[in-house]
Amino acid sequence: MYKILKKEKLNEAVELMVVHAPFVARSCQPGQFIILRADEKGERIPLTIADYDREKETVTIIYQIVGYSTQLLSSKQEGDTIPDFVGPLGKPSDLKKHKRVLGIGGGVGAAPLYPQIRKLHEMGVAVDVILGGRSKEFIILDKEFEAICDKVYYATDDGTKGKKGFVTDVLNELLNEGKEYDEIIAIGPLVMMKAVVGITKPKNIKTAVSLNPIMIDGTGMCGGCRVTVGGETKFACVDGPDFDGLLVDFDECMRRQGMYKEEEHSCRIGLGG
Ligand code: FES
C-alpha cells in the first residue's frame, strides 16, 4: 500500500499528490512513468512522474480529472492509500548537454516536462520554457519553472496570462526573432505536439515529444500503447514514452486515443458524472 502524504488542487481539474513509494523514488529518472490503480478492481492509470525525492522516498504525480478512474483517485485524501503504484516504467529521457533547450508544456503536460527541465538545468544547459493553457488558472508549476529557467513565456486562449493565443504562436515569434535552440521538448495534448512539430520539422529542429496513449500492462505485452514512429511500430510503455517528434505519426495516435471514448462515457454515466 502506498500512502498519500500530500494532496493539492492545482486548478478545477488538476490535482497533485505526493505518494510514499520508496522503490520508485529510489530509481526513477525524468521521463519515466508509473501505473497506478485507485482500488483493487480499478483501471490502470499511467502517469508520468512529475517529481521525486530520493531521501523522503516520495514520488509526485499530477493528474487531470477526466473520467471515472481519475475521479476515483481524486476521491482519496491525505493519509489514504493507493493499492497499486508500479514503476518506474519506460525509458528515461535522453537529455543531452546542449547549449540551449526550449521546453513547451501544454496544460497538464507541464508536469512531465518539469523533471526534464530541472535535470537539464542541473546539467548546466540554458533553458527557456513556454507554458500554455486555456486561461491563467490552467497554467501549472509556473513558479517552479521560473526558478530554474532563463525565461518563461506564457500563452493562454483568453489572454489572462501572457500572449493571447497558443504556445505555437510564441514558438513562431521566438524563432522569427532568431532564437536558436539545439532541441525542443514539447509535452501536452497530441494536437499541440503535432502543431509544434508542424513548425520545427520544416526547420529541422530536433524535437522530443512524450506520448501518453492508452496503456494496459505497461510491459510491452498487450499492444495497447502501439504508436508508429518513423514507419516502425513502437510501444510507448517500453520504447518511450519519449520519441523523436519529427517521426511520430500523430494522426494515428489521435485515432487510437479516441477508441475508448464511449466506454469512458458509460463509466461516467454509471458514476452520475
Ligand atoms: Fe501494453 Fe504498452 S501498455 S504494450
From TrEMBL:
One MF annotation (Gene Ontology) recorded for this entry: metal ion binding
Tagged with keyword Cytoplasm: no
UniProt cross-references to CDD domains, sorted A to Z: DHOD_e_trans_like1
PROSITE patterns to which the protein is assigned, alphabetical: FAD_FR
UniProt cross-references to NCBIfam families, sorted A to Z: PRK06222.1 (NF004862)
Source organism per UniProt: Defluviitalea raffinosedens
Keyword annotations of the record: 2Fe-2S, FAD, Flavoprotein, Iron, Iron-sulfur, Metal-binding
InterPro entries: Cyt_c3_hydrogenase_gsu, Dihydroorotate_DH_Fe-S-bd, FAD-bd_FR_type, FNR_nucleotide-bd, OxRdtase_FAD/NAD-bd, PyrK_electron_transfer, Riboflavin_synthase-like_b-brl
Record note on cofactor: Binds 1 [2Fe-2S] cluster per subunit. Binds 1 FAD per subunit.
Record flagged with keyword Metal-binding: yes
GO annotation (BP), single: pyrimidine nucleotide biosynthetic process
Domain of life according to the entry: Bacteria
Cofactor: [2Fe-2S] cluster; FAD
Binding-site residues, FAD: I62, Y63, Q64
Residue ranges constituting the FAD-binding FR-type domain according to the UniProt record: 1-95
Residues annotated for [2Fe-2S] cluster binding in this entry: C222, C225, C237
Name of the protein this chain belongs to: Sulfide/dihydroorotate dehydrogenase-like FAD/NAD-binding protein
